[in-house]
Write a structure and sequence with these properties.
The chain is α+β, with helices and mostly antiparallel strands and 398 residues long. Among the domains are: 203 residues, no CATH class; 52 residues, no CATH class. Helices cover 40% and strands 14% of the residues. It is flat, with a radius of gyration of 29 Å.
Length: 398
């Protein structure tokens, strides 16, 4: 069956450059963006929550550190890629520094943006991290729009970059593109969704329980109460204003006193009514349950974020949980981050970058610096034979 030419021009993957023959997109259309959240400010809300919830922030930071590894390595047979590992851009950042920021954005926001810079002769390659909170996807499906403050969006203050593999030339003669990393989520076509999305409520609970304890500490754990005073008000508006100010200043904060002004009837009825509570245990249980829910939502492990050290440090548990995380989450994320960079190195640097890889090390050394092969296998619980010929050959080649 023959396909209409106009129809073929419309059949291309969203996020890639327009197919040959398609009408060019105007500059104004490129600045028309898809909203990220109902008010286009979801990244700011997620970032604010991470800065308020201690456990939530610790897990995000730890995941980003583990995913970025201890560094990257490349074969000396690909010198241009090896040089990129040591210095990824003109700011002197190593490739590990750049990827660590990309990993942090992805863990926090479910999206990350990596800018690729070269020239028409492909004489160099630089990689820059772009703050994901500043980035939005244009409705033309092929560009990223950058703005310094989306609360006060002005199209004239934006910059646009094409989505990789398309490059566009700039006034300085460089070619630039952006790699968009995103966590897949059904029903979300343009932006990814962070993995912990189901734990937002738990993160808010931890933040609120911490704030409650801080209020109690600020007020020296004094009981809350209501001070009832005799008096008259000139109007209902004045009484309503007193009630509003009392609620605004004292409601929900332990150790505070709310003043209530009422009309006296027979004699002076001024009194203080303490508000007592025996729910401290409930608050602690709520906090502990929220912490557990946050860890589950992140698909993470308690010991890798230092949450079980109060019961004693267990090297075996840390090692086992690290191995599980390494094989189920860390290496998967690393592969998704490094594969586009390998493609860029192959296209721009013209080198086979398959040897470009992460260096992963456990949180602590579980073996001494020098061990025989059978000693290492014994330490890990494997079968070993110190006289095995294959191991003897391996030792002779070290």
């Amino acid at each position: 069956m023959k396909t209409d030419k106009n129809l073929r021009n419309r059949l291309f993957v969203v996020g890639q450059a327009a197919p040959p023959g398609a009408r060019p997109v105007t500059a104004a259309a490129r600045r028309d963006v898809w909203r990220w959240g109902a008010d286009n400010r979801l990244p700011e809300a997620l970032a604010a929550l991470s800065r308020s919830s201690t456990v939530h922030r610790r897990i995000i930071n730890d995941k980003a550190d583990y995913i970025s590894g201890s560094g990257l390595t490349a074969d000396s047979a690909i010198p241009r890629t090896a040089a990129l590992v040591k210095e990824a851009n003109g700011q002197g950042q190593s490739l590990r520094n750049v990827i660590q920021r990309v990993a942090l954005d992805r863990c926090l926001l479910g999206n990350a943006f990596l800018e690729v810079v070269t020239d028409p002769a492909r004489s160099f390659l630089s990689l820059y991290h772009q703050d994901a909170a500043r980035c939005r996807l244009s409705r033309d499906g092929g560009h990223v729009v950058l703005h310094h403050d989306w609360r006060q969006y002005r199209p004239s203050e934006t910059a646009t970059l094409p989505l990789y593999p398309a490059f566009e030339e700039r006034e300085d003669g460089t070619l630039r593109a952006v790699i968009h990393y995103k966590d897949y989520e059904p029903m979300f076509e343009h932006y990814g969704v962070p993995k912990y999305i189901a734990g937002l409520g738990a993160s808010a609970i931890v933040w609120k329980t911490d704030r409650w304890n801080l209020s109690r500490l600020d007020n020296a754990f004094q009981p809350s109460g209501v001070m009832v005073l005799d008096g008259d008000t000139d109007s209902e508006q004045e009484a309503a204003e007193i009630a509003r100010l009392a609620e605004e200043r004292f409601a929900g904060k332990p150790g505070q006193v709310m003043f209530l002004v009422k009309n006296g009837i027979d004699g002076d009825t001024t009194k203080f009514v303490p508000i007592t509570t025996a729910s401290d245990g409930d608050w602690k249980s709520l906090h502990d349950q929220a912490v557990s829910d946050i860890i589950v939502a992140h698909s993470w492990f308690r010991t890798l974020s230092g949450m079980e050290y109060s019961t004693g440090f267990s090297a075996d548990r840390v090692r086992h949980e690290y191995n599980i995380a390494l094989n189920t989450l860390i290496r998967v994320e690393q592969q998704e981050l490094i594969e586009p960079i390998r493609n860029v190195c192959a296209e721009v640097l013209r080198e086979d970058a398959r040897s470009l890889a992460f260096v992963n090390r456990p949180p602590f050394e579980v073996k001494p610096d020098y061990m025989r092969v059978w000693e290492a296998r014994k330490a890990d619980g494997y079968d070993y034979d110190p006289d095995d010929p294959a191991q003897q050959l391996f030792l002779s080649q070290i």
